[in-house]
Amino acid sequence: MGNRTLGRRVKRNEVRAVVGMGWRYTWKEMDDGARKPKPRFFTKGFLDGRLVNTYVGTPSVAGINTVCLFIVSTGMKMGAVDVTAAFLTSKDHNAERVSATLPSVLPRVPEENPFKDIPDDRYEELRRMAAEYKPGGTYLVEMGFYGLPCAAQIFDHKLEGVCMELGFKHVDTAIVVKAPPEGGRAQAIVMNWIDDLLTKAPLKEHKALQETLNQRLGFGSVCVIGEGSERKFSGVDIFRVSTGEIHLSQVSYLENTDTTPLWEILKEKHPSKPWKGLDGKSAEPSTEEEVDNQYEKPIHTGVGTL
To answer: Where is the composition biased (Basic and acidic residues) (predicted)?
Structure first.
């Protein structure tokens, strides 16, 4: 709202396509490991009728498992970064414009400023702007969501281009590997989940890899996943116990889908059609031995490639 993503109210015949919008309460994880309730707006981009390819692949669980298995077996150093300004918010200059229809019910805007990081005068300005938008109204999209309709794919191509210049080879969705031209074991691996990257390389080469990528892409936060540290990536919790041991789980991902308590915390009316959320107990690993053969073939193939 603050950057005027939506403009004037329009009629259907003024635009090429109309995309719906929605909002939901969810959890936002903080740097200290805590989490807080946060409402998020989203657009139903699949309703955009313009011929713009927006597909961006994400790494599979099998791919993440395979890479972590290789890291453990070779003792590679592992790091995580996020790219700043991967999606620049830009004006939508397309000849065929798109509008967005707001949900029929919108979150209530408190009269008093509840945000510590927003000055009171700025909050009052945002409240006035919010009052201009009516539930169920259709408004012209002025600023491309996440920069442009295809911004994520544009960045994905840029990242792949940079990696190719550095000698990496694309081996699977969102996974590139650098190996000797004559063949042999992988020297470095980069795996991306949109603008979040996992970097892997030998101990003496890992820092240089991150610095080189930083010069070309521009990083926000940079960290090393050392012994005893943890990082979330593409819905997977990666905990490095030691050089030769990594634990993977999706417990926090499943816990964060349990949004039912948010309505009580925020003292809001629960939707008329409640859903059953998952809790931490339902995400606990089974105590019985389970054998899942669906990953056997892709893991064997991936290990052979690496």
So the answer is: 273-282
Region 176-198 average pLDDT: 89
pLDDT tens, position by position, 241-277: 999 999 999 888 877 777 666 666 666 666 555 445 4
C-alpha–C-alpha distance, residues 225 and 213, integer Å: 17
Whether 113 is covered by a domain: the verdict is no
**Cβ atoms of residues 248 and 233 within 8 Å:** no
Closest CA to 81 of 257, 178, 210, 177: 210
**240 in Cβ contact with 225 (< 8 Å):** yes
Pick from 175, 239, 226, 202: nearest CA to 74: 202
Q: What is the pLDDT of residues 17-48, one digit of tens each?
A: 888 887 777 777 776 767 777 777 777 776 76
Residue-level pLDDT at 106: 81
Which stretches of the chain are assigned E, i.e. beta strand?
Answer: 6-9, 17-29, 35-43, 77-83, 98-101, 138-141, 168-172, 175-178, 188-193, 196-201, 219-224, 229-233, 236-242, 245-249
Does 90 fall in a domain?
A: yes
Residue 110 lies in a domain: no
Domain count, the chain: 1
Average pLDDT, the chain: 80
CA 251 to chain centre: 17
Q: Write down the pLDDT at residue 168.
A: 94
**Is residue 111 domain-resident?**
no
CB-CB contact of 144 with 154 (8 Å): no
Instruction: Please choose, from the candidates 162, 167, 152, the residue with its C-alpha nearest in 3D space to the C-alpha of residue 218.
Output: 162
Question: 98-101 and 17-29: which strand pairing?
Answer: parallel
The answer to whether 171 and 178 are in contact (CB under 8 A) is no
pLDDT confidence bin for 281, thresholds 50/70/90:
low
